[in-house]
Fold:
Amino acid sequence: MLERQLFAVARNPVRTEPTGALVRSTAMEAVAPTVLALRGSHDRFAMRKQHAHLSDEALVALVARGDEPALGELYERVGRVAYGLALRVLRDERLAEDAVQEGFLAVWRTAAAFRAERAKASTWILTLVHRRAVDLVRREERRRAEPLPEDFSTRPGQSAEPTEEAAWLRYERERVQAALAKLPDTQREAIELAYYGGYSQSELAERLGVPLGTIKSRMFAGLARLRELLDESAQEGSWKPEFTS
Amino acid sequence: MEAGIHELTAAYALDALDAEERRAFEAHLATCESCQEELASFASTTEALAVAATGPAPRDDLRDRIVAAARAEPQVLVPFEPRRSRSIPLLAAVSAAAAVVALALGLWAVRLSGDLDEARSSLDVLADPDARTVALQAGRGRLVVDPDGRAVLVLNGLGRAPAGKTYEVWVVEGDVPAPAGLFPGSSGAELVDVEGTVDEGDVVAVTVEDAGGAEQPTPPLVVASEPV
Structure:
């Protein structure tokens, strides 16, 4: 169920973006009618149309053969989530863009090693981007002193969001937050600091002043419980806010 | 086996290992089936955490920058391929005329694009690092052939076959064409399995035939590979 939902978000831009691309190209025409810009957006539209009906996994297989438009289409499907994740970890737009770009270049270079029977393409891409973001944040010591990730969701995006995609992302965010809220505090803290904060388990042990073994146990128990909670809420089919009295 | 190393699947899934721990765990992971399964079971969980982080959209030019950077970046694991298929002018003109799009199709599809389960075999070929890419002398796309001779046509914008017609794939050995499957065609990119095997020197070609296919190809060739 969750997989289907992730596929749904990955696919949403395919249905909604072409309209957006046309709107942008019209706006560009009005503001700055450069032939180059227009041709770029038309080419992009044409490319998207070409690849829109292929599965994520088929796109990765094409990327492995040097198909650049296939890489662009994968970005259209997964890039938005990848960027949001990198931004949450790095809290800096330029660094987040670097992490996304390097993650997708890793996709480009190593697509031939990807095996569809082992993982979904979207999982693999997000893993590559997340790992890159974590490696970057561990080098950026000054960020460590800053407060924990704030909710970026209240900030406006730079381009208009397709409504359906935005709604799905909001729903999914609330579903995950509800599940996280049900974890014991120590487990939630370990998961959030690790995944969104980029802390290694050793850094966490030091920061929280607890033995490394305790951190390992908290992360394992917390992630296993989160998996259960998310499976349950996915099976319920729709997330509903919980009211206490 | 180190006690408790299985517990590290969670830390690994969350990217909470430092570089050295990561390498050590990956070495363990390569041989530990239960950790592989555990890790796979966490995939949807970490993915949900990723989706939940979503905030503002990236700048519009990020996609183009990524594709431009990829263009300058070598791909280390797969053989390179020509960026554009070469085309013989006469054949190219013929194929452009023949590939004119029509509507309405029957249901004899051997078309594989878009469906993961059905497309498995063509994906296997495409994903094989030892598979070779062969340019087309007619049509847009390329042919990919693995060492066992299994082949996939990657076609761009052939278009749907006219009403009452089908595309038919041929493996031409010397002067002898053998039928190698039917497909309806699509206006986008598509993956078409070539039935049977392709040997060195063979040419893979596509013609338009009456629905149900033919025993012998009807000219012109709308797609033709270079000799494999």
Remarks:
- The longest strand of chain B covers residues 165-173.
- Residues 61 and 178 of chain B are 48 Å apart (CA to CA).
- Strands of chain B lie at 132-138, 141-145, 151-156, 165-173, 176-183, 189-194, 203-210, 223-225.
